[in-house]
Write a structure and sequence with these properties.
The chain is about 35% helix and about 25% strand. By secondary structure, it is α/β, with parallel strands linked by helices. It folds into two domains: about 180 residues, Rossmann fold, CATH 3.40.50.410; about 45 residues, no CATH class. α1 crosses α3. The protein is elongated.
Length: about 300
């Protein structure tokens, strides 16, 4: 395959192979895998009793309880099902403005999570976005699908370089929510800089049914820019120019706004029992993912 972005580096994938995602509970109506479902069915591990209802299978009745207590109850077992994993790497223009590009880091993170999910029989879907959502890589399972996902990401990444689209996370999230996908884990990989602002992003993030993991790709210069004096800045996506005098007061106000921006994202992830990872673009990706997977496990 044409792996321009080196998404299938063997050493990288070998490290990902050692990691596991453990779901607290998964939504019912999935397929067999390694996670405990909220369903109570005919699985292997006994969980509870409930009173018999017309229509229940006779074989599920616990006749020992009936003989002892005269009550007709059925045994409930825990089903093991898959955790749908939905990956949303940001491939907007701002993610391509450096060398190496943050977009490539975002794709590598997506491939790492795809590899982990496919290893444990989960369905994995990849939905790259910029000013709109690309929904061509729908949820699928099977270890052999990793090549397909990497090929699709490579193709979409190359197209996004040529198209040079801006960022609209809120619009992309709205389209994603409209797909009506089974409840699962949603991994958004972005710099989370959007010209529509944090309020628009938060409004759509709060509407999602999925458990979030937000991976913010950053560099130290994002919070501590090396800019001083009278300068003219240009928005890399909209092209808007603005003259600014950068002094200590401006820098302090900027840092406070920056921290508030990401504090809101962290707070959202925490309240939804999700996760937040500040991933330094200048450092090794897998080392930083390893910090998220304590003891090799991430609990979703």
């Amino acid at each position: 395959m044409n792996d321009r972005f080196n998404l299938l580096d063997p050493h990288f994938l070998e490290q990902a192979h050692a990691l596991r995602i453990v779901a607290r509970r998964v939504a019912p109506a999935g397929r067999w895998a390694e996670h405990r479902s909220r369903d109570r069915g005919q699985g292997m591990e006994f969980r509870d009793y409930r009173p018999y209802s017309p229509g229940d299978e006779m074989r599920s009745i616990d006749w020992n309880v009936y003989r002892r207590l005269g009550r007709v109850v059925v045994r409930l077992f825990e089903e093991m099902e898959d955790l749908p994993i939905y990956l949303m790497p940001d491939l907007s223009l701002s993610m391509w403005k450096e060398e190496p590009a943050r977009a490539v880091t975002a794709m590598k993170v997506a491939v790492a999570f795809a590899s982990i999910g496919l290893d444990q029989h989960d369905r994995v879907g990849v939905f790259p976005f910029s000013d709109a959502l690309n929904a061509t890589v729908r949820p699928t399972s099977g270890r052999g699908r990793l090549n397909t996902i990497a090929e699709a990401l490579t193709r979409i990444g190359e197209e996004s370089i040529d198209q040079q689209n801006g960022t609209d996370l809120a619009k992309s999230m709205a389209k994603f929510s409209g797909l009506g996908l089974r409840e699962g884990m949603l991994v958004i990989i972005s710099d989370f800089f959007d010209p529509h602002g944090i309020d628009a992003m938060m409004a759509e993030l709060k509407r999602t049914r999925h458990r979030p993991l937000l991976v913010a790709i950053s560099r130290p210069e994002d919070r501590e820019p090396r800019l001083r004096g009278d300068i003219r800045v240009r928005d890399c996506e909209t092209g808007v120019m603005q003259d600014v005098t950068v002094d200590s007061t401006v820098l302090q106000n900027y840092r406070e706004a920056y921290d508030k921006h990401f504090d809101r994202l962290r707070d959202f992830a925490r309240r939804r029992q999700g996760g937040f990872l500040d991933l330094n673009h200048d450092k090794d990706v897998m080392d930083q993912l390893g910090n998220l997977f304590e003891g090799g496990r991430y609990v979703a």
